[in-house]
Specification:
Helix content is 63%, strand content 0%. It is an all-alpha fold.
Length: 190
Amino acid sequence: MSCQYGDFFEEWEVELVRNRIRRFRRKWVCLQKEGEDDLLQECLIHWYINRKSYNPLREVSRRGFMIRVVQNRLMDIVREMDADKRRVSCFSRDLPSCEGDFTLPFLQDSRENYTFSTDFTGAFHLKLDLNRVVQQLNPRQRQICHALGKLGLSAREVSRLLKISPNTLYREIKRIRDRFEQAGLQDYLG
C-alpha cells in the first residue's frame, strides 16, 4: 500500500528518492530486507527536514543537494543495520543458553569491554532462531561450523581433520549457508 505524498513533495522528488533506494538495494543486501515503502518514507522525512538548509548560492542544484541528502540517509541506515548486527554478534555469547544450545563460533567477537544497548528480547530471539537452525544441521555440518569458526581452521585443514574431500566440504558449507538463508539469517554467517 503506497502513501500519497502530493501535498508535501513534488513528483520528481518522490521518483528521485525511489530511484536512489533501488540503486542502494541492489548494492546493499541488508536494505533488501527492508520494505521499499518504509525506506521511501524514511528518506522523504529526512529530506523534508533537511531541504530547508538548501542554499542555491552554495549548492550545485536542488536536485544535486537532494541526492546527497538521500544518499547520506541511506548510508546511515546501512551503518545502523551493520552496527546492530555487530552488537548482536558481540552480545550472543552472553545470552542465557537454551536447551540444546550450540554456540555459533562465527558469532563470537574478541572485544571484551563492549556496552550493549539494544533490546535484549530481540537479541534473545535471534539466538533462539540461530540455535534452531543449528539444531537442523547434521552432526558433520555442526563439526564444520565449529572447526571453521571457533577453531579458526582453514578449509583445507577442516577437510583433513574430518577426512573428507575439499569438494565435499564445500558442498556441506553451501548446504549450511542455504539453511541459514532459508531462515533469513545469512547476515550472521562469517
